[in-house]
Amino acid sequence: MSTGELLNIEPLELKFSFELKKQASCSLQLSNKTENYVAFKVKTTNPKKYCVRPNTGVVSPRSTCDVVVTMQAQKEAPPDLQCKDKFLLQSVIAPHGAAVKDITPEMFSKEAGHVVEECKLKVVYVSPPQPPSPVPEGEEEGESVRADNGHLSDSEPAAASIPLGNPQDISTEAEALIEKLTKEKKVAIQQNNKLRQELELLKREASKGKGGVSLMLVMFIGLIGIILGYILKKA
Question: How far apart are CA 195 and CA 191, in angstroms?
Fold first, then answer.
């Protein structure tokens, strides 16, 4: 803080958060510590680079005034963010009840015999605050990991279950299989009954006929009947 006789100026350094192609602003607070009206004027060594609002004004007795300084967007950064730009704030006692429209360049002329207070202000560039670095995946606080004994923690997903088929499809297939077996069983029963009938018929004809039927034929037909009966039981 500058403690001149007319104005207190805070701060004495204009700090800008420097980022390429972005504007930056900072503010000054001027406090009038007298019972007089005080006129002020802000100058800079690089007027194309900075915009000061207001660059001239009047501070009423025992009151304050805020001045905003804006740095235009820059295409290049100075080496090590070192800046040589300077500001000069001049202040002088103004007539009672003076307003901004009453300020003239002659009021700040020392040659005219006016007492002009001057305060030099430095420009400081600072790096913008860095965003917090992201936490690597798997290291967030509270994340569960595998225990030493190899068991999974509660938050670890369980092994994927093997998807089962649609129960309706399974039921349909089972019904088709049962129906097929039932038909095959009926066919086997019919064939078995037919063979038995033929066997009985051959026995009757053998008993009536003179020459008779060979014993081998009868035994062959009987064997076929036994085999069909066995297949029928398995079905």
Answer: 6
SS3 content of the chain, % helix, strand, coil (to 5): 30, 25, 45
Query: For 131-160, how does the pLDDT look when each residue is reduced to its tens digit (9 = 90+)?
Result: 776 666 655 555 544 444 544 444 444 444
Q: Tokens 């001057």: give the residue.
A: 118
Give me the DSSP letters along 171-197. HHHHHHHHHHHHHHHHHHHHHHHHHHH
pLDDT at 182: 85
- How far apart (Å, rounded) are the C-alpha atoms in residues 27 and 123? 12
232 sits in which H/E element: helix 215-234
Q: What one-character DSSP code corresponds to residue 212?
A: -
- Locate 10 and state its tokens: 């805070």
Question: Which ranges of 41-166 does DSSP label H, i.e. alpha helix?
Answer: none
CA distance 37 to 6: 9
- pLDDT of residue 98 exceeding 60: yes
Q: Are the CB atoms for 65 and 56 separated by under 8 Å?
A: no
Of the candidate ranges 19-28, 98-107, 199-208, the one whose mean pLDDT is the lowest: 199-208
pLDDT at 2: 67
Q: How many CB atoms lie within 10 A of CB 112?
A: 9
Strand-pairing partners, residue 53, are 68
Residue linked to tokens 């800008």: 16
- Sole residue written with tokens 């938050």: 155
Q: What is the spatial distance between Cα 75 and Cα 4, in angstroms, rounded to a whole number?
A: 37
pLDDT tens figures, 39-83? 999 999 999 999 999 999 999 999 999 999 999 999 999 999 999
For β-strands 64-71 and 13-17, DSSP reports them as unpaired
